[in-house]
Structure formats: structure tokens, C-alpha cells
Design goal:
The protein is 88% helix and 0% strand. It is flat, with a radius of gyration of 12 Å. α1 packs antiparallel against α2 and α2 packs antiparallel against α3.
Length: 68
């Protein structure tokens, strides 16, 4: 359950940064950390939904890094 809480807290931080107009590098750093948190959550929870969410996040970050 700690892993799920970490993911939710990270999402809240990202939302707060976004609303505050944080720069792109700060948001990307939080998104990378979210990926780590989501991977940990997926390992503990298991299941296709968690793995799919992590894969989608990983792909989105990869695309963002190419665009930077």
C-alpha cells in the first residue's frame, strides 16, 4: 500500500507544479520519479493494468525526451 500512496503523492506534486507554472525540467524530473514509483507499485500489486500503466508512462517519457 505504501507504493500506491507514493504514486498518488507524486501525482499530486506534479499537478501542483503544473498549476504553479513550473518549468519543463522540473516536471520531467517528477515524471521520471513517478516512473520509478509506478514500477515499484506494479511489482507489488502485479497484474496487467499496472504493467500497462508503467509501459504507457515509460513511452510518454521517451517521447518527451526526444522532443526536448
Amino acid at each position: 500500500m505504501d507504493e500506491a500512496r507514493a504514486v498518488l503523492e507524486r501525482l499530486e506534486r506534479i499537478e501542483t507544479l503544473d498549476r504553479a507554472g513550473a518549468d519543463r525540467s522540473a516536471l520531467l524530473a517528477e515524471l521520471r520519479a513517478l516512473l520509478v514509483d509506478a514500477e515499484a507499485w506494479s511489482r507489488v500489486e502485479g497484474g496487467d493494468a499496472g504493467e500497462s500503466a508503467v509501459a504507457t508512462l515509460r513511452l510518454a517519457l521517451a517521447r518527451e525526451m526526444i522532443a526536448v
